[in-house]
Amino acid sequence: MLNNLNSIIIEGNLTRDPQLKTIPNGNQVCSFAVASNRYYRHNDQTEQEVSFFEVETWSKLAQTCGEVLKKGRGVRVVGRLKQDRWEDPNGKTQARIKIVAEHVEFKPVFKRDDEAGAEKAAMVAEDTEAETVF
Questions:
Q1: Distance CA 107, CA 126 (A)
Q2: CATH topology for the 1-82 domain
Q3: Where are the beta strands (DSSP E) in 23-134?
Q4: What is the Cα–Cα distance from 71 to 34, expressed in whole angstroms?
Q5: Which residues touch 11 (CB under 8 Å, ≥6 apart)?
Q6: Longest C-alpha distance within the chain, in Å?
Q7: What is the mean pLDDT of residues 66-79?
Q8: How far apart (Å, rounded) are the C-alpha atoms in residues 107 and 71?
């Protein structure tokens, strides 16, 4: 049986520092939020639309993201959408969609200090495991 297509690519900037946790089975998970801007023309004016996405990374990719990423850093995230469902204390079903990243590119950071210079290339991290089960 084949999987249905579930793939997403977004670019944006982190809206907060990443949160790196180790879950009870010893796996690491890193979560962060990305804001992605979209510009379009409406009535001869440029409009901006901002979307916010929750991203989750696992294992070595999680560790790398937790060490390298900071609020404001630009990233390109390649992954899949995942919907979490749960029942709240009132018995109502709740749902949330997040991105489970399989690949994260870190955009260059340009230092303000002349001596430091700029990073020459973006760092790339990729998850080698298809899915981590906990």
A1: 14
A2: OB fold (Dihydrolipoamide Acetyltransferase, E2P) (2.40.50)
A3: 28-42, 45-58, 74-87, 93-106, 123-126
A4: 9
A5: 36, 74, 75, 76, 77
A6: 59
A7: 96
A8: 13
Name the phi and psi angles at 120, rounded to 5: -80, -30
Residue 31 backbone zone (phi > 0: left; psi -120 to 50: alpha; other: beta) = beta
Contact 51, 36 (CB under 8 A): yes
Q: CB 90: neighbour CB atoms within 10 A?
A: 6
Strands 93-106, 45-58: pairing kind: parallel
Boundaries of every domain in the chain = 1-82
The pTM for the full model equals: 0.78
| Residue 64, number of CB atoms within 10 A of its CB | 21
SS3 at position 129: coil
> Which tens digits make up the pLDDT trace of 48-69?
999 999 999 999 999 999 999 9
- Comparing CA positions, the residue from 93, 104, 78 lying closest to residue 6 is 78
